[in-house]
Amino acid sequence: MKPSEPVTENTLSEDSSEPEDDALRQLCHEISGPLTSILVHCDLQLESDCTPATRARIEAILSEALRIHQRLRNSQRG
Description:
Elements: H1 9-47, H2 52-77
């Protein structure tokens, strides 16, 4: 390739992934706020007196919320 020729192949492939990356980052950001609220409220609820059945349900919610949180963090890394 001559220096005067435009580089279109690499530029197009790089540009095509950027909107997807931006969309993924935006989605992760939008999910992160409510998810943090769920995590905090679960922690607070577990500090209070509750029945064993209620505690088990809250722990299940907390476990799933932490799993989602970890998946979001992993998706942002790579």
